[in-house]
Amino acid sequence: MADSDVRIGLVLPDVMGTYGDGGNALVLRQRLRLRDIPAEIVEITLDDPVPESLDLYTLGGAEDYAQRLATRHLIKYPGLQRAAERGAPVLAICAAIQVLGHWYETSSGERVDGVGMLDVTTSPQRARTIGELVSKPLLAGLSVQLTGFENHRGGTVLGPAASPLGAVVKGAGNRAGDGFDGAIQGSVVATYMHGPCLARNPELADLLLSKVVGGLSPLELPEVELLRSERLAAR
């Protein structure tokens, strides 16, 4: 991979970029470049079909109307689904979990059929969940706590084909009282962690990258560890 750019798909930032989750693509690119591995971000908007040929993909959060636009686009142009089928890593944040599931209900009670990449369903909770989210990782290859900021009203239930990303230590995660955050299914890793997620969880960033480029040399970035320490200590 060192002889050509690693292509990172930033999927629908025009409608799925409400909470700054486009930063995850920047983190992935920078962590590759710091290791002298060329990388580029390919933005895929509502004006573009979704290519299936990219190396990995990221999707972010959104509100109800934007979610519906994104869902229709991903169903019409199933490049993301085809890429995941061949094993390309996909990182889905917050509303993207819901979009990639079987169905989700909007705050008004409308049920929308999802893309079907994740065995999950989502319905509105009584109260919105806002605050710091910390979890113990349940995904092989991760060893340190995951940290992020959650801001969602949807409550997500996992079916048998999906497994959680982490066991909640602080916050709500998928659904108040459930005790888990996120979903893992095939090459898709999903979570309710904003932050951006990968800025606060470099181990997860490198795990996703390793699926594309193989083993990675460690990076010594004290400022990243300082950020993690500050956020893990937040109340």
UniProtKB/TrEMBL annotation:
Record protein name field: Lipid II isoglutaminyl synthase (glutamine-hydrolyzing) subunit GatD
CDD domains the record matches: GATase1_CobQ
EC number(s) on file: 6.3.5.13, 3.5.1.2
Catalytic residues identified in the record: 94, 194
Domain of life: Bacteria
Record's catalysed reaction(s): L-glutamine + H2O = L-glutamate + NH4(+); beta-D-GlcNAc-(1->4)-Mur2Ac(oyl-L-Ala-gamma-D-Glu-L-Lys-D-Ala-D-Ala)-di-trans,octa-cis-undecaprenyl diphosphate + L-glutamine + ATP + H2O = beta-D-GlcNAc-(1->4)-Mur2Ac(oyl-L-Ala-D-isoglutaminyl-L-Lys-D-Ala-D-Ala)-di-trans,octa-cis-undecaprenyl diphosphate + L-glutamate + ADP + phosphate + H(+)
Residues engaged in binding substrate: 128
Family under the similarity heading: Belongs to the CobB/CobQ family. GatD subfamily.
Pathway(s) served: Cell wall biogenesis; peptidoglycan biosynthesis
BP terms from Gene Ontology: cell wall organization; cobalamin biosynthetic process; peptidoglycan biosynthetic process; regulation of cell shape
Domain CobB/CobQ-like glutamine amidotransferase: 7-201
InterPro entries documented for this protein: Class_I_gatase-like, CobQ_GATase1, GATase_3, Lipid_II_synth_GatD
Species of the source: Mycobacterium numidiamassiliense
Alphabetically ordered keywords of this record: Cell shape, Cell wall biogenesis/degradation, Glutamine amidotransferase, Hydrolase, Ligase, Peptidoglycan synthesis, Transferase
GO MF annotation terms: carbon-nitrogen ligase activity on lipid II; glutaminase activity; transferase activity
SUPFAM superfamilies membership: Class I glutamine amidotransferase-like
Function (record text): The lipid II isoglutaminyl synthase complex catalyzes the formation of alpha-D-isoglutamine in the cell wall lipid II stem peptide. The GatD subunit catalyzes the hydrolysis of glutamine to glutamate and ammonia. The resulting ammonia molecule is channeled to the active site of MurT.
Subunit description: Forms a heterodimer with MurT.
